[in-house]
Each structure stands twice: as C-alpha cells, then as structure tokens.
Amino acid sequence: METEDTEIRFGVMAVKMGFASPDQIVEALDTQVKENLFTGKHRRIGAILLDQGILSGSQMQEVAKKLNQIT
User: Fold this and answer.
1) Count of domains for the chain
2) How far is CA 19 from each of CA 2, 42, 47, 60, rounded to the nearest angstrom?
C-alpha cells in the first residue's frame, strides 16, 4: 500500500508551501543524520531549517499548523 498524503513530512510540506526547495530539505536531512551519528542528538527538520535561516519562526508555525490540519 502506498503512503497517503496524511503522512506528509514537515520538509515535504515546507516545499509544497514554497518555503524551502527540495535541495534545502535534502541538506537539512543530511545535517540531521550527521548530528544523529556524531553527537547522538536528534533535531527536527523544522529546527534545522530555522537555524539555517531557510524558514522563519512564523513559516515554521504555518507548516506545523498545515500538517496538523491534515492529520
């Protein structure tokens, strides 16, 4: 069975909303994996995008709100 849109991830929604590019999401995911491997810490993609200056705080909230409406 294929995954439905109800399981859209934060990064995918940020791209759909025009707040980030696919390349920026891939870079954020790379950062997330490296942090997991080398520091044992897990940061959410939204926090990474915020720290990288890709998303503003209000954009991050908009994406989260949209995701909550879907699920």
Assistant:
1) 1
2) 26, 22, 14, 9
Residue type for position 19: F
Residue 52 DSSP symbol: T
On the CB side of 29, CA atoms within 13 Å amount to 11
pTM over 0.70: yes
The token duo for 26 is 């891939």
Give the CA dihedral 48, 40, 66, 68, nearest 10 degrees: -160
How confident is the model over 28-40, as pLDDT tens digits?
Answer: 999 999 999 999 9
* Whether the Cβ atoms of residue 63 and residue 27 lie closer than 8 Å to each other: no
Range of the domain at 51: 5-70
